[in-house]
Automatic annotation (TrEMBL):
PANTHER family: ACTIN-RELATED PROTEIN 2_3 COMPLEX SUBUNIT 2, ARP2/3 COMPLEX 34 KDA SUBUNIT. One of its GO terms (molecular function) is actin binding. Component of the Arp2/3 complex. The keyword Cytoplasm applies. InterPro entries: ARPC2, ARPC2/4. This is Arp2/3 complex 34 kDa subunit. It comes from the Eukaryota. Residues 303-313 have a biased composition (Basic residues). Belongs to the ARPC2 family. Functions as actin-binding component of the Arp2/3 complex which is involved in regulation of actin polymerization and together with an activating nucleation-promoting factor (NPF) mediates the formation of branched actin networks. Seems to contact the mother actin filament. Arp2/3 complex plays a critical role in the control of cell morphogenesis via the modulation of cell polarity development. SUPFAM superfamilies: Arp2/3 complex subunits. One of its GO terms (biological process) is actin filament organization.
Length: 326
């Protein structure tokens, strides 16, 4: 299966092109929209080509999800830790956006490899901002210090007006995703996909993956959640994360995979739907060809005879009588 990549490819292309052409004065004003209604707006001027303004709009959070200053908890600290002096947060952000930052391209590292790595990190700003609260919870899981908010249900936004839930515990963290789809066909495919997803976890090659459960009804951990969050038409998926799943470099990959799990399922549901439509069209074409080959020769000859047309011409001679000719 295909995993979604954290860098925004369009944003990375714009940044790379700008860095390679700093000596050319070009006005820059680009916008793009990513899955789950995440929007980007990047601007640059001719007078100061080293400075870029990047604005990010996140999905609208549901009522049970808390945003601080229009951003998820811990997002500001995560941005400062990830980018340092290269990026400066502007307050307030541009109208219609949750975050606006100023990029100083002159402070990029001179080494090409490190420069490209930092550009990829900037293009992954969605992961840094949107995954900040989940990253903080998972860091507590691997730390030996005192843990706060144990067994407390935490709501994190990941789609417009939709959230998933995190339950921190002493030795593990449980994540619960209410799977909601608007299209009835998507709902059926997603339900089947998620059940097979749980079964695949039981194979020997995936024994070290996080335990995964699916249920058509809300699990007990969601007691007290809003009615909107419990109205999932494709069931509820639960993951149990242990310290081994977030150790070292695994943390960032785990945070991104969990934050975009619904988009991951939606992508594969649409791919499955498109594949089935293609197979159906090919099947219909093969059946039509088989029917054409099965027609008897007499019927084909009859059709050929009926397709010929003859006209009778009436020619009058000088005495007024007519002669027929074909």
């Amino acid at each position: 299966m295909i995993l979604l990549q954290s860098p925004c490819r369009y944003l990375l292309q714009v940044l790379s092109t700008r860095v390679q052409n700093l000596d050319k004065g070009v006005e820059l004003d680009c916008q793009c929209v990513e899955f789950d209604d995440v929007r980007y707006h990047i601007q640059g001027t001719v007078k100061n080509p080293n400075i870029l303004l990047l604005s990010v709009s996140l999905p609208t959070p549901p009522p049970e999800t808390v945003f601080l200053g229009g951003l998820p908890p811990g997002a500001i600290d995560a941005i400062k830790a990830a980018y340092g002096a290269v990026l400066q947060i502007l307050d307030p952000p541009r109208d219609g956006f949750n975050l606006t930052v100023k990029l100083n391209l002159s402070k990029l590292p001179p080494d090409e490899e490190h420069k490209q790595a930092l550009l990829i990190k900037i293009a992954s700003i969605r992961e840094v901002v949107q995954g900040a609260p989940l990253r903080a919870v998972l860091k507590q899981l691997i730390s030996r210090g005192p843990k706060s908010d144990l067994n407390k249900l935490v709501s994190l936004a990941h789609r417009p007006n939709e959230s998933f839930f995190v339950v921190p515990q002493a030795e593990k963290v449980t994540l619960i995703f209410p799977m909601q789809f608007k299209d009835s066909i998507d709902t059926v495919l997603a339900t089947s996909f998620l059940q097979e997803f749980v079964e695949a976890r039981r194979t020997a090659g995936l024994s070290s993956a996080p335990p995964c459960l699916w249920s058509p009804s809300p699990p007990q951990e969601l007691i007290g959640a809003s009615d909107e969050a419990l109205s999932a038409n494709a069931g509820f998926v639960s993951f149990v994360i242990f310290p081994r799943h977030v150790d070292g470099r695994k943390l960032d990959r785990t945070v991104w995979s969990l934050s975009t799990f619904h988009a991951y399922v939606s992508y594969h549901v649409k791919c499955s739907e498109g594949f089935m439509h293609t197979r159906m069209r090919r099947r219909v074409e093969s059946l039509i060809e088989a029917l054409d080959r099965a027609k008897p020769e007499s019927e084909k000859a009859k059709k050929t005879a009926q397709s010929r047309s003859f006209k009778r011409l009436s020619i009058k001679d000088g005495r007024g009588s007519s002669m027929n000719s074909r």
